[in-house]
Amino acid sequence: MYKDLFGKTRAKLGLHIHTTISDGSKSPEEAARRYKEAGFDAIAITDHWKYGEKQVLEGLSVLPGIEYDIGIPGEKIFHIVCICAESEPTGLTKQTSAQDMVNTIHKCGGLAVLAHPAWSLNTPADILAVDGFDATEIYNSVSNEGNSFRPDSSILIDMIGYEGRFYPLLATDDVHHYDGKDDCISYIMAECDPTDPDSVKDAIVNKRFYATQGPEIHLTQNGNTFRIDCSPVCKIAFASNQPWCRRVFKGDGITSAEYTPLPTEKFIRAFVVDKDGKYAWSNIIPLK
User: Taking a C-beta distance cutoff of 8 angstroms, is the pair 137, 172 a contact?
Assistant: First the structure.
């Protein structure tokens, strides 16, 4: 567990992990050991079509999880991660619709997370046609230049935000290779009990977390002013549906910035980048 800049206790969570149970290169025990050594408080093992129960491995809390892939490769696909379910979703196949899959996950008490929408080439229309995603990945480590491409889904998140759909934003590894390029890189820092799936779910749904690769980030609103407080970084940026405005701040070791949105802006989110090129992302605050 970690203390943030404001003294709140947060858990370091990796919520998209693959092992030799499906197509990962490490066993569940090896994966747990690796993430525990990297300071994680819990992980979700989300092997493809193989439901993972709540357990403790190598002294690390493991949350319930599974990943489903549906659709036709080369045409339309969805990858949907189920985390923190109370029981295993059943009756699902690769022909199940995304909507039915989300509904089934909810019936089992789980969160339905839209995985790597940029990598999957999910369009805004694809995403908006499904009701009930509980969160989506803003960054996915395995989809980086070393292993694939399109790791950052920020543009899609801003496009669906323009349409009034605002999801909690997770950073995950989606680790497969354990080659240093896709493991122990991207995670969330949440106000929760990492051993309790219900506590983790509540923190995600109510956006009591931030997504990161290391830096700390806090986005707050006071009237019409938005403020970022963060660990020392070299760039702070406020993002919205607005194509351009003066909302990027650069410097050496900057730790805060403020921004007043334009009347045309529908939401504000933010991200920071530190001197080592590591990112952190806030959740979205809608504007009325």
Answer: yes
pLDDT at 261: 94
Structure tokens at 133: 């995603």
Q: Tokens at residue 95, please? A: 């022909």
Contact by Cβ (8 Å): 83, 46:
yes
Which residue in 106, 159, 158, 164 sits closest to 133, CA to CA? 106
Answer yes or no: are the C-beta atoms of 239 and 271 closer than 8 Å.
yes
The structure tokens listed for 105 are 């996950």
| 15 SS3 class | strand
Beta bridge partners of 149: none
Listed in sequence order, the DSSP H helices in 67-206 are: 98-107, 124-128, 154-162, 197-205
User: DSSP label at 141?
Assistant: G
Q: Which candidate, 169, 205, 220, places its Cα nearest to that of 8?
A: 220
Q: How many CB atoms neighbour CB 22 within 10 A?
A: 16
Other C-beta atoms lying within 10 Å of the C-beta of residue 58: 15
* pTM > 0.85: yes
Query: In whole angstroms, what is the distance from residue 126 CA to residue 7 CA?
Result: 40
| CB-count exposure of residue 110 (10 Å: 0-12, 13-18, 19+) | buried
Tell me the pLDDT tens digit for each residue of 166-206.
Answer: 999 999 999 999 999 999 999 999 999 999 999 999 999 99
- Reported as a pLDDT band with limits 50, 70 and 90, residue 251 is very high
* Count of residues making up the chain: 288
